[in-house]
Design brief:
Layout lengths: L1 E10 L2 E11 L4 E5 L6 H8 L7 E6 L2 E2 L5 H5 L2 E5 L10 H5 L1 H5 L4 H14 L4 H4 L9 H13 L5 E5 L7 H18 L2 E6 L2 H7 L2 E6 L3 E6 L1 H6 L4 H7 L3 H4 L27 E3 L4 H10 L5 E5 L2 E6 L1 H12 L3 H4 L1
Parallel strand pairs: 3-8, 3-9, 6-7, 7-8, 11-12
Antiparallel strand pairs: 1-2, 1-4, 4-5, 9-10, 12-13
Length: 327
Amino acid sequence: MLRLEAVSKRYGGRSVVHDLSIDVGDGELCILIGPSGCGKTTTLKMINRLVEPSSGRIYLDDEDVTHVNPVALRRRMGYVIQQTGLFPHQTVAANVATVPRLLGWDRTRIHKRVEELLDLVGLDPDDYRDRYPDELSGGQRQRVGVARALAADPPVLLMDEPFGAIDPIARDRLQGEFLRLQAELRKTVVFVTHDIDEAVRLGDRIAVLRQGGVLEQYATPAEVLGEPASAFVADFVGADRGLKRLSVTPIDAADVEPLSGEVLDPKDHHARVPLDGSLRDALAQMLLHEAPWVVVEDGERSVGVLTPDSLWAALRRSLAEDEPSTQ
């Protein structure tokens, strides 16, 4: 458990972060989001004490980290930044091994961990261990940065817009890969972004900050989109928040219509979506293939179809909770 209690940071007479209190449960991914200058990165740096808080307390598993050795603390927290911060004159393997080496691990243990992590982030160790950062694409460098942050198996991972400088296609792929890693490793993650779509896709909970580092709302993506706590939050997440909410609204088996005579062989139909997908996945496939329906599959078995009418009904249901706040 990571807990911030009334944490503030002031520079001169200006408040950068104001009385911020949030709890991040074990294995949760917390997103910090808000406009530029709202204290997102400062908050991240206070957690590992690259910046000292002006007041308040920060606890990791009930230990007040403001009273521990900051260097030792940082070795217990993985840190990933937008530009990766890889050492340009060291190989990929040497970069990943940075923290284990500082912790005094023996060479055999370090080698095994490097191989394991490169494989985990989707980089074949035989192909990548001896390369240098300038021989990698931006997405590959970012994967190495994640591997380096995970090297000593830290309980907490801090990520400051790690995919912000990557092209949209690679970014989408990296987000998916990171979700896979998080499902497997269940790290406690604090993740800074300015992109509400990224926040909704990745976060278990989202902390929306406004200027001065004031917390406006801390809730699940569905709650932030469906029930904004203030006009600021509603404006920040956008007027299309109902559509964004489709990405966090799972397909409900009750909305799936049985296969009819119209669908002679659903295996020949290219618009398909898994039963555990989202309504956004279904709508995207329908639009991509200009299809009158999308086939819903449970594994290799086709269980029915979603049509424009059933998608519309599901959308209305997902938006029903918004009505009091939008009227």
